[in-house]
């Protein structure tokens, strides 16, 4: 863990946006000293910490934060047999935090991600930017060359269809890393020094079965991204990728990563075309229905590649069942249309 830094005089709104409507989910195996850097931005919010690995280990959280911490024993106690859908010894365990949260919005971050600075040297409040992204529309059906026409100072370019300028609800805001890129293991090896300068979609934010006892790891965020994008496209929901930036401090060991990713590197040549070609039927008008349908397609189409995908498809169903058990209000609303 890199040394902690305290940020004096950070530019924080007097009243934090969505203070009572947002939880911050953090998966970790270590003490959360990194929160000191984020304190000016995170302290007003409630944290849900999902402890991976040894549940008997004590995780230290800096004083002054409002948080709840769950370890593997808690997950097993709360979900019972359905705990099998939550990964162990992999950051994919974070999705348990999404499930137990009762807030409308979720922000998730890893413990090796620090505050970045803008070109003027000012600290970037990534959380605030994500919130602004979610509270403004997206343009998923037609590309705007000024990135986000809803940002202050931007607008729609010449030729952008007027009928699409109302935009779509933004379901996901996906920021980017500065410093250490999110490469797969082979690319890490050949470019070791390179540096780079919920309510709508919650039930689909499942990070799959990864890590301990599974033949694959480090594909958790990609699996969630592929599933979510297909479902968002089907339900006419938007996804924003780009701003804000955060600073990624630590590069993991590429040889360890290669062992985790090895099968995924081969499998992705079939997985990506699968998501490119899958079509969700019109009658699937809620996230849950879309995800259950997708799980059936995973079992039918990808199950031919390896038995792992049959197991994953079953876990996808278990995930939805567990989600609906812990979020009965959301489940009831899903009997109508997506909200």
Automatic annotation (TrEMBL):
Coiled coil: none annotated. Belongs to the RGP family. InterPro entries: RGP_fam. Keywords: Cell wall biogenesis/degradation, Golgi apparatus. The lineage of its organism: Eukaryota, Viridiplantae, Streptophyta, Embryophyta, Tracheophyta. It comes from the Eukaryota. GO terms for cellular component: cytosol; Golgi apparatus; plant-type cell wall. GO terms for biological process: cell wall organization; plant-type cell wall organization or biogenesis; UDP-L-arabinose metabolic process. Transmembrane segments: none annotated. This is UDP-arabinopyranose mutase. It is found in: Golgi apparatus. GO terms for molecular function: UDP-arabinopyranose mutase activity.
């Amino acid at each position: 863990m890199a040394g902690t830094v305290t940020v004096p005089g950070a530019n924080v709104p007097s009243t934090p946006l969505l203070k009572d409507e947002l939880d911050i989910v953090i998966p970790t195996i270590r003490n959360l000293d990194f929160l000191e850097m984020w304190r000016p931005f995170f302290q007003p919010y409630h944290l849900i910490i999902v402890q991976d690995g040894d549940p008997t280990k004590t995780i230290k959280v800096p004083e002054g934060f409002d948080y709840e911490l769950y370890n593997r024993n808690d997950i097993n106690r709360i979900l019972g047999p359905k705990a099998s859908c939550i990964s162990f010894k992999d950051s994919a365990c974070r999705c348990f935090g999404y499930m137990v949260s009762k807030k409308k919005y979720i922000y998730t971050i890893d413990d090796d991600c620090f505050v970045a600075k803008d070109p003027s040297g000012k600290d970037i409040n990534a959380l605030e930017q994500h919130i602004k992204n979610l509270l403004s529309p997206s343009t998923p059906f037609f590309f705007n060359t000024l990135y986000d026409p809803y940002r202050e100072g931007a607008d729609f370019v010449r030729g952008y269809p007027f009928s699409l300028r109302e935009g779509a609800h933004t379901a996901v805001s996906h920021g980017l890393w500065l410093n250490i890129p999110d490469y797969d293991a082979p690319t890490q090896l050949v470019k070791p020094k390179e540096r780079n300068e919920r309510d709508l979609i919650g039930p689909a934010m499942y990070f799959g079965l990864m890590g301990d006892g599974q033949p694959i790891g480090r594909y958790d965020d990609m699996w969630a991204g592929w599933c979510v994008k297909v479902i968002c496209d089907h339900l006419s929901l938007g996804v924003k990728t780009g701003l804000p930036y955060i600073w990624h401090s630590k590069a993991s060991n590429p040889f360890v990563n290669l062992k985790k990713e090895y099968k995924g590197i081969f499998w992705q040549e079939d997985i990506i075309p699968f998501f490119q070609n899958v079509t969700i039927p019109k009658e699937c008008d809620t996230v849950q229905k879309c995800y259950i349908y997708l799980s059936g397609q995973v079992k039918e189409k990808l199950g031919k590649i390896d038995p792992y995908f049959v197991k994953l498809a079953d876990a996808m169903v278990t995930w939805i069942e567990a989600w609906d058990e812990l979020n009965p209000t959301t489940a009831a609303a899903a009997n109508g249309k997506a909200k």
